Amino acid sequence: MSSCVPLPLSPFQRLGRLITGVEPGLPPIDVSVGEPRHPVPSFVGPVLSAALADFVRYPPIKGTPAFRAAVAGWAERRFGLPAGTIDRDDGVLPLNGSREGLFHATLTAVRLAGATKGSRPAILLPNPFYAVYAAAAEAAGAEPVLVAASRKDGFLPRFERLPADLLARTVAAFHASPANPQGAVADLERLQGLVSLARQYGFLLFSDECYSEIWRGRAPDGVLSAALSGGGFQGVVAFNSLSKRSNLAGARCGFAIGDPAFLKAWAGLRNVTAPQVPMPIQAVAVAALADEAHVLENRRLYDLKYAVAQEILGDRFPDLVPPGGFFLWLDVGRWGGGEDVTARLWKEKGVKVVPGGYLSATDADGINPGGDFIRIAMVESLETSREALSRLSEVLS
Ligand SMILES: Cc1ncc(COP(=O)(O)O)c(C=O)c1O
What we know:
The protein is α/β, with parallel strands linked by helices. Helix content is 40%, strand content 14%.
């Protein structure tokens, strides 16, 4: 190979470049990564050890029947779907964390669309966005189309405003609710509108719902209810995982639920390409999805931390506490913008956050909707979160 195109840097690699070589002003606190640090639920150890012998086996790509039934049963209970609505054979797929699923689903979607979407198939994504959406579109040879999810639109992308010719060549749209980083939540009507739009233009709707269980006020609706009220799951896939709901990011266990025809075709491709979920981890998922007590406790812990955030920063940020997810998404434009505040916060106070502009991109109008923001993950203990926010408050005084 004589030359190569550099791969895009992840937000965390860019953050590393921003602060490498700069000594933290105080003992470091890292609130940059969305990795839950609440305890692993107590039943995980015993379930894992009881299933240990299954580590000798290659797991089936479609998962065990018990795994599929547990996922389907949980989703039906959680989203108020009639029992048995989700196809236990083809309506659920295990994923090695939802991230690889979002990636491989895109490759499959573009491959299945073939020439039907013309020579420049498009993939829609919100801006800011979870990095894998854009990477997947690029890898699939599709055009990633960034759609601003700004405050004036409730931090949700308005795909319905795109020109008809673009929607007609769209293969799939990524939509996240609760959204990372803003924590915005789409209501049922909005989700129904998205499902109708996807059906009108014949594209797949990939609904990233991995923060669905971290909320304040009211449990977020899911795309499956929206799809069912419109007749069925065709063209719709919900992605979720144990990472945020059950503090099991390291177990790498996610799942896709929805359109059986798409999931069946995708399972065929996954059979020769994708990582499987180890059987003992599937057993953990069966137990985790049957238990809501640890999920309630998680929400209680997040609520305490948001109350502290409100106490420390509420006077400067009127809409500080988002309805979903576990981030603070703070507009620090009047203090110099996201990159500047991130660099100062590290240098003066040893607190590591992510500049919002690293989670978003400059769009066709030359605007980076995340540029003025920083993202703070509320994943640490109450005491550590309080300390991090107090240090931030001093920098923003
Ligand atoms: C919006 C969003 N989607 C998907 C994921 C992937 O999570 P996992 O692969 O652990 O299921 C993350 C992880 O941070 C995320 O923030």
